[in-house]
Amino acid sequence: MNSSGCTDVIDPELPAPLPPSAWKSLHTQWARLRAIDVPALFGLDPQRFERLSHTHDGLLLDFSKQRIDPTALESLLGLARAAGLERGVEALFGARPLNFTENRAALHMALRGGCEAPPAERPGLHATEQGLRTFAERVRGGAHRGASGEPIGLVVNLGIGGSDLGPRMVVEALSPSSPGNGPDVRFVANPDPLELDSVLAEASPHTTLFIISSKSFGTAETLANAETARTWLRAGLGLNTGLGPHLAAVSNAVDAARGFGIPEEHIFPLPEWVGGRYSVWSAIGLPARIALGNPAFDALLDGGRSIDRHFREAPLERNLPVLLGLIGIWNASIADIGTLALLPYSHALRSLPAWLQQLEMESNGKHCRRDGTPTPVATAPVIWGGAGTVGQHAFHQLLYQGTRAVAVDFVVPVNGSDPRSRMLVDNALAQSSALMCGRTLAAATEELRVKRGLNAEETARLAPHLACAGNQPSTTLLLPQLTPYRLGQLMALYEHKVFVQGWLWGINSFDQYGVELGKDMARALASGREDSADPSTAGLLAAAQAMRQQP
Ligand code: F6P
């Protein structure tokens, strides 16, 4: 450990983080490009779209609307080479302990066949996978019965963070287009009783199965919900023991799960080397297997594997996750754009921003590099967003006429299952175009004068309010349609993007020590150690206590 609390370079064979001077040429490129009008770049280079869009296995990634040109992109690729990115990718797939603060590999790709799992673990992984398949099929098909012999009609996943966001998003995205009539699958993450109570209000304990999803089986919020669920089952079934048919767990703390009363055969472990936010491919995907069926889940894994292969094999300049990562670095670290809006033009993908929020912000919201020094540039942006086209009528105003640059990713499945969804594609493309092109004062004046027939005075008064600066940078990802395979590609694409960025920033994308600080504080307050609170928090605690005592 060094004075910053980080381990020194873990693996002497891996390249050291980039020196601050390595970033200089990018700052020079940005000084050249910052005042350039993006639409004008298309005039200078009629092949710009072809040059700055790339395809792989049905996906199209276009970043021609970014404030970048091929020369600056070449500098970014140079940075990636200087950082030894290709060696980093091999180290990732080769199970090197890149999560060096916890001395672990990050091998989630092994769960989708994107690389090998450690040989000693393969039999156990295989057995867990078989168990998951069988259990999911039995629950889905009605063979698995509750304590009173009825089939399961409702599955409730109790988990938070990575034990919720991934499977929740997958189920939400794919259920509308999935055949079959398995049980209803719901997700509860919040320890606010309102969330679980509202699900239980419509449920019967005789036909409900809870999956307690917690890698650690130690997350206070999940355990609080699990307690509530167990109490509800006991009361509703009139049983003190024998709740086994209604309980399953996904956890590698097998003893703790067993101690909670979950039958051995319903406990599905996940390996240590799978981080929570990368865990949907593991047993954490159980609710998705039940909701969608094993074949759909297999197709999700296939899609992820297709991106693994591409990420490992494609040259950097045609490598989709690499390019997505480099563009993100250009915006966040060089152009000083501190926020990325993720706009999936699909109701089914409405939870994609929440999933990406954890993936990017928990992975790369850090500043301590492998050698313990702080990063010389800004790292992960603030990720936010929501389903297009709804956001257009809420927050897009700021994108057009606000005072901040905001980077945008448009994610657009082209063929919705319903032909009426064509409007979404049109809207996504119109938004990306309008954000880039903007509306000049002259165009606004012309519109008011010619189209609206206003006089000169009115036109001059209103025109500045209609003008939009344009040049808001966006990337567009087109997917042919939203199938399990395509969703697998999409998720793996962003996972590897995060790796690329973490590698160039020189940070560990696979730990989350910051989160622990808040957990420690919550534990201290919950155990009545108010004396450890700062004066503001102590004041608030006292005020909350007083409010509790008011009628
Ligand atoms: O608090 C953050 C976190 O550790 C995430 O990284 C993780 O996905 C989540 O909590 C849930 O953890 P667990 O699966 O152990 O309950």
Summarize this structure as a short list of keywords or feature phrases.
Rossmann fold; 551 residues; single chain; alpha/beta; 5-stranded parallel sheet; 3 domains
Structural summary, described in words:
- This protein is α/β, with parallel strands linked by helices and 551 residues long.
- The chain has 3 domains: 269 residues, 3-Layer(aba) Sandwich (Rossmann fold), CATH 3.40.50; 184 residues, Rossmann fold (3-Layer(aba) Sandwich), CATH 3.40.50.10490; 33 residues, no CATH class.
- The protein has 21 helices and 11 strands.
- The strands form 2 sheets. A 6-stranded mixed β-sheet has the order 1-2-11-10-8-9, sandwiched between helices. The chain has a 5-stranded parallel β-sheet with strand order 4-3-5-6-7, sandwiched between helices.
- Helix 7 links the parallel strand 3 and strand 4.
- The N terminus is likely disordered.
- The site of 6-O-phosphono-beta-D-fructofuranose has 14 residues, from loops.
